[in-house]
Fold these 4 entries.
Entry 1:
Amino acid sequence: MGPLVPDIIGNDLNLILALVIGVFFGMILEQAGFSTSKKLVGLFYGYDFTVLRVFFTAGIVAMIGVMIMEHYGLIDINLVYINPTYAWSAVIGGLIMGLGFVVGGFCPGTSVCAAAIGKIDAMIFIGGSFLGVLFFAEGYPLFEDLYKSSFFGNPRFFETLGISQNMFAFVMVVVALAAFWFVSIIENRVNGVRQKVIQFTPYYISLASIGLMIALSAFMFPERKTMLENLVENPGVISSYEIKTMSVDEFAYRLMDPDNKMQVIDFRSPEAYFKFNLPKSTLFSIDNLFEKEPNRVLSVRHKINVIVADDELTEKKLAIMAKEVGYDRVWILKGGLNDFKESILGFKQLYEPRTKQEADLFRFRNKASKEIPLLIQQNKSAGPVKKIQKRVVGGC
């Protein structure tokens, strides 16, 4: 599961790969004409909107790509770096960069691309960029309050708007298509082209079809957590899904058994967990099921994971989600913790056993009702699932 850094790709190798990718990215920019300041500033004068089309398209493709990877559990979105939002520094920085873009004819990335093929104006632009960086760094104590003002954290746009991720992606693709159409009108007027923007030719029909497919694909890859939460609310799925159950007696036996092949995955609230928790138990949340690092707990070889909650229905819903995420050896406690507390911890023999099997059962439960509370006092549970890995800092 991604991100690949630092588990699969180390930090040092990451820098080397970034350099290689950057070189290829620069080559593509150059081939696309982005080393020409005249083409770049055409965005501001209205005669060439290639920059808008390329970067808007790249953003949409990346957005859909991340959604697909998240849908199939290939990336832990919580570990993807999101630039923190400082409103005033973003506004002022954007104005300064926009002004520099218009005056100099480059942005920081395209200036390096142009300098690489020997353009003098791009080299001068880069020199100016370094002077600006030096000025900001040396003057940081003066700018710090403004730089850190109006902090909004790491918001995601669809969460701020209160809409689903899929709806936001769909709207963004539609806005992109509308923007491409609108800027084409502007281009034609500025350049004196009388050709219609929309023509019913195979080329334009193909482009429109691709745009429509990308827009609709936003609904084909819903957020995995939301999709599974909706799935387990279906009574038909609950009744037909096969999940292994463990009786309260076997569960009690395994808790007392020194053979450490069972781990208890406790999905109750933190308050309930810290008030009463079992040996060999780890506190989990639904979010942990979809996160890269906590999931290692569920992937330990030769161990069975017994999901516990107050009732069996909740356990089964969580177990279905865990199975759908891709985890095997998932069991649930029959009757839930409520039944375990009543049948084992609070065991009371109400009548004399009528068979030998019943006598053995009563004897075992009587023993378990005394030993397990001692184990609870003596043993420390694992507590909440540990998350050490931090988001890799980066971004443009």
Note: The chain has a mean pLDDT of 86.
Entry 2:
Amino acid sequence: MNNDLNKIMPLAQAVARFVKTGSHISIGGFTLNRNPMAAVYEIIRQKIKELHLYAHSNGTGLDELIGAGCVSRLEIAYGGNGKAAPTCIRFARAVQNNEILFEDYSNYMMSLRFMAGAMGVPFLPTLSGLGSDMLTTWGFSESMRRSDPKIVDSKLAVVDNPFGNWGGAKKVVAVPAINPDVTIIHVQKADAMGTCRIQGLTFADVEQVKASRHVIVTCEQLVEKPVLREHPDMNQIPFIHVTAVCHVPFGGYPTAVYGHYDYDAQYLKRFAKAARDEAAFKAYQDRFIFGVKDHEQFLEKVGKDRLAAIAADPKTGYSVNMKRD
């Protein structure tokens, strides 16, 4: 093992190098928790388009990418921004206006699809969705599937249980593996080699990372290797899976990062209000995304007082005083 591996690079360089027009990407986190927001905003600033996006259940990152016109195809279980927008507004509008192609799965199906990709198997069986119209309602046509070698020919397949009625099921649903070109996640701690430690819920991040050809990690804290080696049982992602490490404090803002800061309810409400109106949304993008050169300038625009207001309580891991309505 080479202990001198150094995968640290600026976020703008990592995005430019690994995220291309037409790339199949996945982003980590769940609704308004631990979205890789600094990377999302960088993708938007670099005007990378025609992305095929996979997510387990996402929210803020998903809605920003779709609102900026970066996504052409989406596979996901759910997209919501908490109380600010129980269903992501730009996501819903894009689907209703046929601006993106969209295919839906259950949360469990998406977890299994990433796990299949991580395991290196073509599919995994489940009973999830059996008997529902999720099996028969496709977002991608057969002709489009056949024309794109990165997309499986069928959304899902119901197959015979190879063990008869073992387990009480004669039929199972086969969910196809996902292997993104690049997965982007935000974690609390990483070292230069790419070993990562996630505090709190991991969602499907670990499976997304292991299923992907390239992985960009943004982190709150860039630590020395001995720090993570002291308690290796607390590290979920081995360095072998990671391609680039980018140190971006508050890189999940305005979503929450357990132990560091909560989601910013005020910011998300302003975002949701702007997302309902085209002119207001353009003004929002011009001010907070295109009007700054990077995430650091974005945070300066948000303001130190706002960041201090959502600081996590050391005991609970989230802000105990923030008004969430």
Note: The chain has two domains: 11-121+179-310, 123-176.
Entry 3:
Amino acid sequence: MNWVALKMLVGDRLKYIALVAGVAFAALLITNQASILVGFAHRTGAWVRDTDVADLWVMDEQVEFTEDIKPMLETALGRVRGVEGVQWAVPLYKNFVNAQMADGTRRNVRLIGLDDATLTGGPPIMVEGTMADLRRDRGVLMNVEAPVRLDRTPGSPAVKVGDRITLNDYEVVVVGTYRSSTEFFWEPVLYTTYSRAKFVYTDQRKTLQYVLVKVKPGADVAAVAQRIFDNTGHRALTSDQFEDQTMWWILNKTGILINFGITVAMGMAIGILVAGQTFFSFVLDNLRHFAALMAMGADRLTILRMLLVQVLVVAGLGYGIGLGGAAAAGMLFSKAGLAFQMSWQITVAGGVAVFVCCLIAGLLGAVRVLRLEPAVVFKS
């Protein structure tokens, strides 16, 4: 009977294509928008992942995300180093600053100051120069990626190693370039040493934004984090916790989660409506065939199984086409900077959502079939 169900399904090519196309469109909408949402969320923690050299990030307890500048007193570094279970702790400076280039172009940049002695927390991949070049007089490192590159106005020559930049009336020199993960935030990032970063902000009493902490081997990270809070009053988060905190703050405050959530929900609604309407129309057109099968002895369970086969075939084909289309579009537009990350969770959740849509649509048709009197086939 499964073969008969498939013959009925593809008997009307136009309706069959419409069914598969409707499901494919819904699958594309659901998985594509969900992948973009995950891509945006993943980018919010890019800097934390790239700086993943320590077990704990110590910060002011009011800090809500990575770019929330709430510096601490420098005495916090010594107090953290004195906490039991801490192997080493280094300062990390971060703040926004106005940069002016030689041609007068001004841009807001993020300035990150690394511990002078160890340069811990630097960029993950160096393109030109080395981390040690930061110890050269007035040295800074610049991102080499175009979207966050510190460049002049369009049409002007690109900033390169050896060029000079003014940060708050303090002149620095580009001594190297690096490559990092694409971030959610768009301001260019310059790396320098901690002491040099403080020169840029000589008017601020508090300059210590983060303390990177490595716990001793065998020590419990959560217990050390609690002791740091008890002894200093500052919050200590693991990289995963800090990344999650940043992601949820941005998703909630910017409305990204709601906007993309609505789009995904609309994809499901469209899938149910399109597939439901088309499948219901398909069932109505085949009522005579179902009635004939029931008149020949097919029970209701057999009819339901035939409908289930038709639903699964349409859902499988439609989801495969839609998922492939979403992946292809994501790969294509990612090259243009689109935040797109299709995880296995999205493919599974998207598949479940599409199959639920199709089962709801099939259920609507099944109700009509189960109410069918087999004698109707002999009345016409």
Note: The first helix runs from residue 2 to 11.
Entry 4:
Amino acid sequence: MTAPTLVKLARYGAPPSAETDAPVSEDLVDDRVRLRRLGPGDGVRGGILLGPVLLLAFWFIGSATGFIDERTLSAPWTVVETARDLWADGRLQDGLVTSVTRAGLGLALGVGVGVVLALLAGLSRSGEAVIDGPVQVKRSIPSLALIPLLILWFGIGEEMKVYTIALGVLVPIYIHTHNGLRTIDSRYAELAETIGVGRIAFVRQVVVPGAMPGFLLGLRFAVTSALLALVVVEQINATSGIGYMITLASSYGQTDVIIVGLVVYAILGLVADGVVRLIARRALSWRRTLES
């Protein structure tokens, strides 16, 4: 059995047998998909935006009819006008660039460390014995609880903010990638040993495809964790960013500016999650699931 055949087995989940050397019939797969009656049905184009649009419609109608008091929650048209003013004087885009940079650096650092730890713990019992315990301890301690300690270590500058975000990111990446590694069918490892696949080829052809669903799920949680940590660190001795703008607005009772900041955070989260879901859909297109 050849290495490409092993990859095919890892992708389609077929049991090891001589029949797996035959080419996979796409017609048979498509027939199963067409005949599926118990799934969630066909996807809704732009469905990810349906919920936010309905929420926005409720906000608009509630403000227009007086159901929502503008002293409690600014009207959408007021928020739009405020956003336009903030954009005109440069405050909004400056804060957005600062926030995206912080979140991106923390996310990249946390993902990198989380993947390395997951590989070390997932491919080695010794690595798991050393790494898994401390990560589980970190999992039980919210990253936000470590902020006082991080301030003492790194001060109140950008370094502390990036490390706080990274600590919130690495745990979901580690947990889901490690779980994806450990749930790879052991028969693939036996097959790889039988046909003489080396360690690097085994990781590239079996481990990476097998762990990819777990990693991408962890990435979705990681993006959310990064934004949650960003909201907090930008309200602690920050002098720039969307969080700083919100904190400053709360001191002056500017509800409309606060709503603008929250809408920006919401858009960032929605866009980031949409990008990850798109990547997952393309990277895992070989899977036949209810999502496909």
Note: Residues 1-5, 12-21 have pLDDT under 50 and may be disordered.
